[in-house]
Q: What sequence folds into this?
């Protein structure tokens, strides 16, 4: 991992020049909270790491229910009407 | 195998994901199959892994007010034309619980499918109020 020290208002640029590059700017540091600004092209998705991890967990839990679970869900929805 | 015997394929043969679903980096090609007679429960079945399937549902019967805002990046990735935007399918990933009451859907990251281009993406919405696990039925 590359580790850099940056002051408030300073940036790092990831990638080669605009429009493809991603610019990350330190906006504010208050205690243990750092606000960063990310300027990225639309094709680059930017997400909080923990949200992606939570979504991966949610997907893993949802994946491949047993035929029995699908059958009972089908039945439960059918009788609900 | 009782649950699989009645499946029939819908008229979208192969759907390609613009990005893999988080947690499933190796699965890029899927097919939508019908899991019940009403066409409410659908199977989003991987064509790259033998056993991977997600159960998905349209939101309307469960969350009639659900109207996610899809960003321009997704519109362009899935090749959504403005005139055909009404054809785009929004589907919720279901986590089947032991009972209906314990069954949840993911409102934060719906599956968006464009039948015109057969491209899809699990879109992470910006609205932080939307839960990853909301009850399927209230």
A:
């Amino acid at each position: 991992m590359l580790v850099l020290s940056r002051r408030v208002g300073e940036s790092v640029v990831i990638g080669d020049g605009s429009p493809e590059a991603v610019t990350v700017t330190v906006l504010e540091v208050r205690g243990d909270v750092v606000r960063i600004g990310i300027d990225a092209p639309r094709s680059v998705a930017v997400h909080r790491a923990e949200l992606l991890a939570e979504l991966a967990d949610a997907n893993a839990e949802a994946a491949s229910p047993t035929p029995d679970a699908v059958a009972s869900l089908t039945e439960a929805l059918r009788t609900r009407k | 195998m009782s649950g699989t015997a009645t499946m029939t394929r819908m008229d979208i043969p192969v759907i390609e994901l613009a990005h893999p679903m988080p947690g499933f980096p190796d699965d890029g090609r899927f097919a939508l199959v019908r899991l019940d007679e009403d066409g409410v429960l659908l199977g989003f079945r991987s064509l790259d892994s033998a056993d991977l399937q997600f159960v998905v549902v349209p939101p309307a019967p469960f969350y009639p007010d659900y109207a996610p805002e899809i960003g321009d990046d997704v519109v362009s990735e899935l090749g959504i034309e403005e005139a055909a935007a009404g054809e785009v399918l929004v589907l919720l990933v279901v986590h089947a619980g032991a009972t209906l009451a314990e069954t949840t859907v993911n409102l934060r990251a719906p599956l968006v499918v464009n039948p015109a281009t057969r491209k899809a993406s699990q879109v992470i919405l910006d609205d932080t109020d939307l839960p990853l696990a909301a009850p399927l039925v209230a």
Summary: Residues 49-62 of chain A form the longest helix (14 residues). Chain A touches chain B at residues 42-43, 45, 47, 51-52, 54-65, 67-71, 73-74, 76-78, 80 (CB under 8 Å). The mean pLDDT of chain A is 92. Residues 68 and 74 of chain A are 10 Å apart (CA to CA).
